Amino acid sequence: MEFNQNFILGCSAIGAGLAVIAGIGPGIGQGIAAGHAAAAVGRNPGAKSDITSTMLLGQAVAETTGLYGLLIAMLLLFVKPLV
Amino acid sequence: MGQGILLSGGADIDFMVHGIFSYEIFGQTVWITTTHVCVLIVFLLIIGFCLAANRAVKKADDVPKGFQNVVELIVEMLDGMVKSTMGKNATKFANYIGTIFIFILISNISGLFGLRPPTADYGVTLALGVMTFSIIHFNKFKHQHISGVIKGLCDPWPIWAPINLIGDVAVPISLSLRLFANVLSGTVMMALVYGLLSWIATAWPAVLHVYFDLFSGAIQTYVFCMLTMTYVTDAIGES
């Protein structure tokens, strides 16, 4: 079956939008990490700097899956592998 | 460029790598791109700083002052970071970790000075990931020998070997993609703000620069070095 190029471009845009839904996961995960870090600071204010750096490290690693979704969206929009 | 973005904004949305000139080698066309130029600028900056630091340290005083103070602060910070993660292995790896830390940090921050960050090109970050990968596996073979590596590969049962192999190969890919995607997302975001808002985007995008270039760049630099150190410490094992 032959498809029109504009049809494929439109489908790529929809696919890019769907791929960015991957951002939900890291959002929830980072929120949980930040909440637990806030609880930990409340329990032990002396260890605030250690807790903050550990939280940021964990959040940056958790962010990766969301960024993979972003990367797929970028590939679909700008590299256009399907056209 | 995507047609959709071009329709809604001007043609001045620009976050792609551009070729400057190309040459033929062994029948392949090789492009010198803006990334090469930005890496060169970053290198010149670091080399200039190193020469100045070298001169400052050569005529060092017991009581540091001025520029010598700054150099000692940086070296002590990097050494402390490596020592707190790697423990007794720190002395051997402080050089490598310090080098990639400074390079990635300056590269990420260079978006602040109008360059396209070199780390927003997958070629640069993949090279960094492959360097880390070879250091991990060199140390694995050196400290655990072939028997230990095979034993680690067949961890619970020998049938898991392919999965462990995929896990090993995934390390440089995930390391490099994490850095690349973070810096690229910042670059795209800034290009969209400047490209789509034209005259509205005056002065206030400085706030976005602080987040996307400074904060995100510094965090990702720290994460890359931290993960490298963790993987290398893991590869050396308890010998």
Characterise the protein shown here.
- The complex is a heterodimer of chains A (83) and B (239).
- Chain A is mainly α.
- Chain A has a domain at 23-76: F1F0 ATP synthase subunit C (F1FO ATP Synthase, Up-down Bundle), CATH 1.20.20.
- In chain A, 80% of the residues lie in helices and 0% in strands.
- Chain A has four helices and no strands.
- Chain A has helices spanning 5-19, 24-43, 48-62, 64-79.
- Chain A is rod-shaped, with a radius of gyration of 19 Å.
- The two termini of chain A are 14 Å apart.
- Chain B is mainly α and 239 residues long.
- Chain B has one domain (3-236).
- Chain B contains seven helices and two strands.
- Chain B has helices spanning 3-8, 34-58, 67-86, 90-109, 122-153, 161-197, 205-236; strands at residues 19-25, 28-33.
- In chain B, strands 1-2 form a two-stranded antiparallel ribbon.
- The longest helix of chain B is centred in the last third of the chain and has 37 residues, at 161-197.
- Chain B is globular.
- The mean pLDDT of chain B is 85.
- The chains are: A mainly alpha (83), B mainly alpha (239).
- The interface between A and B is medium-sized, with 16 and 21 residues.
